[in-house]
Structure formats: structure tokens, C-alpha cells
Amino acid sequence: MSKQVSRETFDQVMVPNYSPAAFIPVKGEGSRVWDQQGREFIDFAGGIAVNALGHCHPELVATVTEQAHKLWHLSNVFTNEPALQLASQLVEKTFADRVFFCNSGAEANEAAFKLARKYAHDHFGADKHEIISCKNSFHGRTVFTVNVGGQPKYAEGFGPNPAGITHIEFNNIDALKAAISDKTCAVVIEPVQGEGGVLPATPEFLKAARELCDQHNALLIFDEVQTGVGRCGTLYAYQAYGVTPDILSSAKGLGGGIPIGAMLTTSKVAPSLAVGTHGTTYGGNPLATAVAGKVVEIVSRPEVLAGVQAKHQRFVDGLNAINAKYNVFKEIRGMGLLIGAVVTDEFAGNARDFLKAAEAQQLMVLVAGLSVVRFAPSLVVEDKDIDEGLARFDAAVAAVVAAKRG
């Protein structure tokens, strides 16, 4: 018999690097979640943009069940049909010619950065190794990716830090021009900075990055771990911008809740990861790739992608209506169903107060930094759930305002 556990159990047995909510979800269906006490929550957090199709989507449940009766894991000593089918889907639907599978966004970025340096080494020599990233970016928690990320607090205490990494202001073309050189092997950009505040790149910035990379024989990497797989209303956000990278990292929504990551690249760049240069034990396992293949199939349906755009407007209209009552947000921004509500100076640094108040109203939301409330719901969230969730958020905002203003 399983041991009874509670939120207090976390503090007794888990490493204290997280501070999870006071309740424990035990069941989910669509955009609804139930906790140990049977309370029903509306989920606007989406597992941090992972649950692209909500909880227990019937087609995903069927796919998991079918594949679980066939084959789970082989390692990459052998290939497998679901991995090859998923790679073929991604090649067909994107700029990419080649795919590498792993288990997470951090691993996908790690592979991307390693490939960029290896490609530069192979074609231009060891001096061409520098990576340009953006301030407030986030690319993962490995020692390499956390340092490429533009939030120094996440790298503190884990030094010495990898060298050859420069950070510039996001959306600043002049800063990129000043930083890039013939020693640059790659420029990495999130089309929408997720953890950095749900801040979209300008089309001009991405276009300039493409042109500057071409001029300096550097590779352009798009980190689409959070923005990919329909989150922004196209299969990948780069397609909305019309700017094509050389390497793209994908994860989160790709597996719909099953851990998987992917690095996509071109036939020009891919050969630098020759046999033995990089690897993973679990990456591309049949169970994960079978589920991801079904996710890509469903998200690619025209009605799903069109629905993301319509639901974006419903969210924005609802948030603006709330703000008209309480005047707590100075900007509502984002793309598709990755939306950020930036708090006014009155509430600066206190976005988490809104998260906690939402929890009290049985609503799950996120933050992005200290001053942005973030929403990343299911891409197929029903309109009635959006409306009910926003009504609960209205009550949460009212509670924060009452506590602040009296």
C-alpha cells in the first residue's frame, strides 16, 4: 500500500530547491485539476507551457496506452519507428533537415550550443567559439545553459563559469552589432522571452540577427522550448516572424507532459555532430516520441492553431476588463497562449502575490520574474474555462488590491 503523503512530506524528504504550492494535485482532465481534498482548480499554468493539450487528452491517453503495450526504451544503440516518424514530421513541417532527440529543454539547448561550437571549430578553427545571448534570457539549468542564459542569479555559486559568453540587451540591434565579430560562433535568442517576462522579440531584431550572423559566419539559434509547438499560434514562433534559424531547440509542449526535447538543424550544420560526439541514453525513446508525434499531429490541425489566436484575444480582452476595474497592470503582452500581465509600479516586485491569491480562488497561474503574471494554458482550453478562470482571477486581483490599498 502506498504511503500517505502531504505537502509537509515535501519538506521532510525533498531537496529544498523548490517551494511548491500548499496543495497537491492528484487528477486532471482538460483544463481542470483536482487536489487531495477533491477541490477543483482551473489550470492556466499548463505545467509551465508543457501541457499543450491539457490533462489526459483522450488521443494522448490512447497513444500512451498503445505504445506502452509495445516498446518503451531501447537506447540509441538501436533506432525505433516512433522516433523516425516524429523526426520525419518535424522535418516536413519546419526548416530543419535533421533532428536530435533528448529529454528536456536544457538538454536541447546544450546540444544546440555544443553543435554551434563544434561546427565553428570544424570550419573556422578554435578561436571562433563565442556565444552571444540576451540579458534576462533563460536557456536551462545545466552549468553551460545557465551561463548562456542572461540571469546571473541562476549561475551564482556554481563557478567557475564557462568562458566565451556575452550578453546584450534584448531587442537592441545596435548592441548586437557591437558585440558580434568573426569570433562569434552563434547568437541565441528566444522569440519570446518566457522566464524573462513574456517579452516578444521585435521582427526587426530577429531579422537583423539573421543578417549579422550571415555576415560573420555565425549560426542563429532560436530557443523555442517555451514558444514552440503551437504556443504562439504557429507550430513554431519563427514561422510567424518569417526569420529562419540554423538551429532550433524544442521541448516543453512537444511531449504534452511526457519528457522530451529536440534539437532541429540543417543538413549543412548537422554533420559536425558525427558518431560519438554527443549522445543521450533516454533521448528519442519510443514512448516519448510516440506521444510527441501525436501532439505534433493534433497541434498542427488548422482549427487548433486558429483557436490559439482566438483564445489569445479572449484572454487579452478579459485581462483588460479586469484591469479597467483595478488598474494593476501596465501592459498585457505576449503571443498566442503565452501571455504576460506586467504589474504597475504600485505592485512592482510582487507578482507572486497574485499567484498566491489565485491559488486561494482555485486557479493555477504562473509568474515570469518578479513583476509579471504569466498565463500558459492548454492550447485547446475551452472558452467556458477561460471565462471561469478569469472570473476567479478577478477575485484574486480584488483580494490583492484590498490588501494593498485597504
TrEMBL record:
What is an example of a Pfam family matching this protein? Aminotran_3
Explain how, and how many, cofactor molecules are bound.
Binds 1 pyridoxal phosphate per subunit.
What domain of life?
A: Bacteria
Catalytic reaction list: N(2)-acetyl-L-ornithine + 2-oxoglutarate = N-acetyl-L-glutamate 5-semialdehyde + L-glutamate
Tell whether Nucleotide-binding is among the UniProt keywords: no
Q: Which cofactor does it need?
A: pyridoxal 5'-phosphate
Q: Which residues form a coiled coil?
A: none
Instruction: Tell me which UniProt keywords the record has, alphabetically.
Output: Amino-acid biosynthesis, Aminotransferase, Arginine biosynthesis, Cytoplasm, Pyridoxal phosphate, Transferase
- Which Gene3D superfamilies does the UniProt entry name for this protein? Aspartate Aminotransferase, domain 1, Type I PLP-dependent aspartate aminotransferase-like (Major domain)
Q: In which pathway does it act?
A: Amino-acid biosynthesis; L-arginine biosynthesis; N(2)-acetyl-L-ornithine from L-glutamate: step 4/4
Under which EC number(s) is this enzyme classified? 2.6.1.11
Where would you find the membrane-spanning parts of this chain?
Answer: none
Question: RNA-binding: present as a keyword of the record?
Answer: no
List every position bearing N6-(pyridoxal phosphate)lysine.
Answer: 252
Annotated residues that bind N(2)-acetyl-L-ornithine are located at 141, 280
Q: Where in the cell is it found?
A: Cytoplasm
Q: What is its main location?
A: cytoplasm
* CDD domains assigned: OAT_like
GO molecular function terms listed in the Swiss-Prot or TrEMBL record: transaminase activity
Q: Which residues bind pyridoxal 5'-phosphate?
A: 105-106, 138, 223-226, 281
The misc remark on file is: May also have succinyldiaminopimelate aminotransferase activity, thus carrying out the corresponding step in lysine biosynthesis.
State the oligomer form and interacting partners. Homodimer.
| UniProt family annotation | Belongs to the class-III pyridoxal-phosphate-dependent aminotransferase family. ArgD subfamily.
Q: Which NCBIfam families match?
A: arg_catab_astC, argD, PRK01278.1, PRK05093.1, PRK12381.1
**Protein name, entry field:** Acetylornithine aminotransferase
Q: Which organism is it from?
A: Vogesella amnigena
